[in-house]
Amino acid sequence: MSLFVKKPLAGLLAEAQEEGGHSLKKTLGVWGLIALGIGAIIGAGLFSITGGAAANQAGPAITISFIVAALGCAFAGLCYAEFASMIPVAGSAYTYSYATMGEFIAWIIGWDLVLEYAVGAATVSISWSRYLVKFLSGFNIHLPASLATGPWDDGMINLPAVFIVVLVSLLLIKGTKESAFVNGIIVALKIAVVLIFIFLGWKYINKTNYNPYIPDNTGTFGEFGFSGIIRAAAIVFFAYIGFDAVSTAAQEAKNPKKDMPWGILGSLAICTILYILFAHVMTGVTNYTSFRGQDGIAPVAVAIDHMGSANAAGVVTPDYPWLNRAIIVAILAGYSSVILVMLMGQSRVFYSMSRDGLLPKVFSEVHPKFRTPFKSNFMFMLFVSLFAAFVPARVVGEMTSIGTLFAFILVCIGVMVLRKNEPNAPRAFKTPLVPLVPILGIFTCLFMMVFLPLDTWIRLLVWMIIGFDVYAWYGMRKSVLSGHDTASYGRSNRIIGLTGLALVVLLAGVAFVHHTTVKEGGSDTGLFYFSLIFAALHLVLYAMRLNKK
């Protein structure tokens, strides 16, 4: 039961060539992959999180934050492209880690990807709900606030968010080809909307809104100044998840060795340019403080309302009143494609983990007609719906960012490991300047992780400890590669026990620092005591595991 057994490259390549009723259907070409990436990238991060990050962390310098985040993505994207062309199998970073660093690390990254994809889909669905409410209000249709917001936002349940998750999940169950076709239409609409916003908004830019371009730090770490730019970069990093989701569809690509690098790097390059221009216009047509608290997670509508002429009283009359409604329609459609790609990526990761025995077989059961992992889609429909219905958008958005950054770090490490261990393995695409590019990717991503709020680190640690529980209880015993190797069972338990204890101690330490340094009156006492109780319970469990033979 070796925790670090590696999946042979020959076996992975054979899996990629599988055909038949138990394999995924190959339907995606290069443009389908690029559209898949753009479909996931342009969404909540651009239309929603940008405004909040500008208002609370970076000011007009949010454009610099996007550039910093793009650098981290570029380094990681080059590493992803090498892996995707070399190991064209569903599972993304999970599969790459299994081939390079062994089963235990692969489990950690696979579990972490739940944060990136499933929780990311929940974030976008919450934003979709906010825009739907605003759109319907234009027709004098007002949904009850208690049924359109979660309990932490003074409501009861976010039903519109649940609705879109269910709708998209049913489309995914129907088939990848149908999903990709719908996604392609939405992507064309979404790019058109972004370009219209940039071109129409450019003439309304008021240069005084850029003064100061980098607001002075308030005295609190992460609120404007240099630390604010980096913290905003870590938050808007969520906006870039999507190019890595392309790699989860590798097994459904017609010519993955050739097309995967184009899909990953092409979608990333296109979206980076659009992001910088979009953020520049958004903070130019109105002062960044306009986005603070006024419209929650829907700031684009605020910017559009300022595209017009002001009267003597300073009240702006929008020149394009139709644009606000039209752009919201496009955003609603665009968010749907983001949710689609996120949920697709998640189901493919769990599909791979299930085939390896680390999760129950239900996650890899393929529909006999549609050839999609329909049961996995259905289960995540329920899981993501619960998050979308009850959890605040800020929380799930930052959890997605930290999960993504962690995944990118492991992929960058994996490229260096595989270059050393498998130097002669065929590579259709090679990451340039190894080890420099992977090291820069690790440094950039880790740098942004450090600048995320401490409560986000607490939630990451809690989630990873839960993952350790699942692996120790199920995955370690059922693994196809290592589950029958009982000779090293005691050693494996000691490794899991020691690693778990280290995470538990780190969780308690981070919770204590967060509790003592948070602004007075803003201390999350409930999260603090939950962390301590959770840590104490697992301290006992992992200590007991150390003694298992």
UniProtKB/TrEMBL annotation:
Keyword Transcription regulation appears in the UniProt entry: no
Any GO CC annotation of this UniProt entry: membrane
Coiled-coil annotation reads: none
Q: Where are the transmembrane segments?
A: 28-49, 61-84, 104-124, 155-173, 180-204, 224-243, 264-282, 326-345, 378-396, 402-419, 431-451, 457-474, 495-514, 526-544
Indicate where this protein resides in the cell: Membrane
Gene Ontology MF annotations:
amino acid transmembrane transporter activity
- Which InterPro entries has this protein been placed in? AA/rel_permease1
Is Signal among the key words of this record? no
Q: Which UniProt keywords apply?
A: Membrane, Transmembrane, Transmembrane helix, Transport
Report membrane topology: Multi-pass membrane protein
Name of the protein described by the UniProt record = Amino acid permease
Species name: Flavisolibacter ginsenosidimutans
